[in-house]
From TrEMBL:
Radical SAM core domain boundaries: 16-182
Listed name of the protein: 7-carboxy-7-deazaguanine synthase
GO MF assignments: 4 iron, 4 sulfur cluster binding; lyase activity; metal ion binding
InterPro entries: 7-CO-7-deazaguanine_synth-like (IPR024924), Aldolase_TIM (IPR013785), rSAM (IPR007197), rSAM_sf (IPR058240)
Taxonomic lineage: Eukaryota, Metazoa, Porifera, Demospongiae, Heteroscleromorpha
Organism of this sequence: Geodia barretti (Barrett's horny sponge)
């Protein structure tokens, strides 16, 4: 599995804010958000190889039951992600997966934290990633699959008041329950 970093911290957002957590950050992302705060996982991926067994050992060393698998985009590596979640679940870990909700795989997870990307995430139009990013940033069918299969929270990055209109439109068109948004 390609990963970027592993660290222990306090969950700083969403339903589990304040919960001690181990963050396992995967490498690679299929989107190129202009304001990405982890460009070392997307724009210029820095990655290391780690086996699932090594990942589980490193995570369990912290003695913390809540694990957040983030990225990059974790679902870009579906096979090792599925195996990692299975192994962590067997050991009694609570697993949250943070995703841009453009890719889907069935995994052992207790919370899916979706962050569909609004127009404010688009790279500049003259950037070679623009067209792909704009085309792939919202996948209604994937969002619906997650909502149907898992407990979910939905987080949007809001930059301007116009973003709120886009969020309301997405909630209505896709069927995102307002109570899942944070």
């Amino acid at each position: 599995m390609k990963f970027s970093e592993l660290f222990h911290t306090i969950q700083g957002e969403g339903q589990l804010i304040g919960v001690p957590s181990v963050f396992f950050r995967t490498s690679y992302c299929n989107l190129r958000c202009v304001w990405c705060d982890t460009p070392y996982t997307s724009w210029e991926p820095e990655d290391r190889d780690i086996t699932v067994a090594e990942s589980v050992a490193a995570i369990t060393r912290y003695g913390c039951k809540h694990v957040v698998i983030t990225g990059g985009e974790p679902f870009i590596q579906p096979e090792p992600l599925t195996e990692l979640c299975h192994e962590l679940d067997k050991r009694g870990h609570h697993i949250t997966i943070e995703t841009n909700a453009t890719l889907f795989a069935e995994v052992a997870a207790h919370l899916i934290s979706m962050s569909p990307k609004l127009r404010n995430s688009n790279p500049p139009e003259d950037n070679h990633f623009f067209k792909r990013h704009e085309r792939e940033r919202i996948c209604p069918e994937v969002i619906r699959k997650f909502l149907d299969a898992y407990p979910c929270q939905v987080k949007f990055v809001v930059d301007t008041p116009e973003d709120l209109t886009e969020i309301q439109t997405l909630q209505t068109e896709i069927g995102i329950p307002a109570e899942t948004s944070c």
